[in-house]
Amino acid sequence: MKLLRFVFSGDSAVVKKLALTLFVILCMGSSLASADEKNTPFINIVQVLVDSAFTQVVPLADAKPSASVFEGDLLEAIGRNADGTWFEVRRRGHTNNLGWISIKMVSNNFNIEFLPLTDAVTAVTGSDKIADTNFGAYVNIESVLRGGPFGDSPRIGIVPFGAVIPVFARNWDATRLQVNYLGKTGWISASNLRPSYDFMTIPVAPGLPPLQKLVVEVIPPEIQLQQKGVAEKMRKIQHLCHQVFI
Fold it and tell me: For residue 220, which of 75, 143, 149, 212 sits 20 to 30 Å off, Cα-Cα?
């Protein structure tokens, strides 16, 4: 910029024109660089925290090792397993996958629920098939899995803290979501999940019963005013009793 100020201070019209052209080119270059940054896709990165580890061919601790990784290694996460406790990874800039690594061995810069589900079979204990619906949820607190979309629906299981589960549908107001935890389909309270996106964007489950209506009691005004008067008198009596015994 000092150079531009120097050039613009000259008397030559040609020099001023060249300087102006240079200034425009610099501005255009800055704009193009900003556009490139905006268009660059976000890469999900995990960093190895332990001295050394193996990636596995499938997301199991006793599975066959597929590669060696070391503390500080940066890997690209490309998928998650059925409960979100393993990442499928590869070397940055490579197309061949290394295998799977436990989330306990790495740190990450993204929300796990946004990763695609790339293994819906390994370690699954239930009989319900798991499908990737492009919706996932991170469990913020150990939660009850229920057989229906209501708070009094029967309990059919427990989903632990930290699990990432596929989401299939929601109830009418998205207060409960239909999910699958390791092959068992049920309903979970949305308040126990990380609100990383608008749950109302999830499709409504087909065949839902009508939304339960809250029963609200409306007390007639004259009775409510009488109750208010009685309550005020009781407070005054309690205050007097308190003063007597001080």
Answer: 212
pLDDT in tens, 23-41: 555 555 554 444 444 555 7
Q: What DSSP character marks residue 151?
A: T
Q: Which residue has the tokens 């201070």?
A: 9
Predicted pLDDT of residue 244: 56
Inside any domain, residue 74: yes
In a domain, 98, yes or no: yes
Which tokens sit at 163?
């699990």
Cβ distance 130 to 166 under 8 Å? Answer: yes
So what's the pLDDT on residue 20?
A: 57
Residue 184 inside a domain? The answer is yes
Q: In this structure, what CATH number is given to the domain that contains residue 167?
A: 2.30.30.40
233, part of any domain: no
Q: Which domain holds residue 142?
A: 136-201
Check if the beta carbon of residue 149 is closer than 8 Å to that of residue 205. yes
Q: Give the CA distances from residue 160 to residues 65, 75, 84, 233, in Å, rounded to whole numbers and listed in that order.
A: 27, 27, 11, 51
What is the tens place of the pLDDT at every residue in 138-189? 999 999 999 999 999 999 999 999 999 999 999 999 999 999 999 999 999 9
Give the closest residue to 83 by CA, choosing from 100, 68, 70, 107.
Answer: 100
Q: Do 141 and 109 reside in the same domain of the chain?
A: no
Report the predicted TM-score, pTM, of the whole model to 2 decimal places: 0.72
